[in-house]
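Quick start: what a row looks like.
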Amino acid sequence: MEVRIPRAEERVQNPPRGWLTIFEISLRSGFRFPPCEKVIEILRFCAVPISQFTPVGVSRLMGLIVFFREHGGRLTLDLFRDWCDVRTDGGERMEVHSNKSWLEFEARADRRHGNTLFGYIKNSWGIPEAWDTLVDRCRRVKGKERDSLFYHF
């Protein structure tokens, strides 16, 4: 695994080609490298780089994967889309929310540290790299604007 520190002119939203941006707080929220296959599958499906998820979004994503693993279930993309909603936090970051009242999962993240500390890691998993807006992503997926990535196409 290759990791590097960003140069002064490099920005979090546009990592160099072939690299992922990773926040320290994402690691504190439970994200690990190499990512498990389910994380890779979900990130590819959502077309969202891990760095664009908020710390709570990362915690919820990891928590849901662990929930299924611990209960002997299999989290499919259809279940993820039916049970969760990936939405904007009002800015450029993404959140994961449950849309099932019985599946209330709470995630905590230490927001005091690590939200601005970031680095790059070589992307050998085919995970989306550059940030995008939810509106642009939804237009590409279905040709309409929405406030949610999973609008039940």
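That is the whole record. The mean pLDDT is 74. DSSP finds five helices and five strands in the chain.
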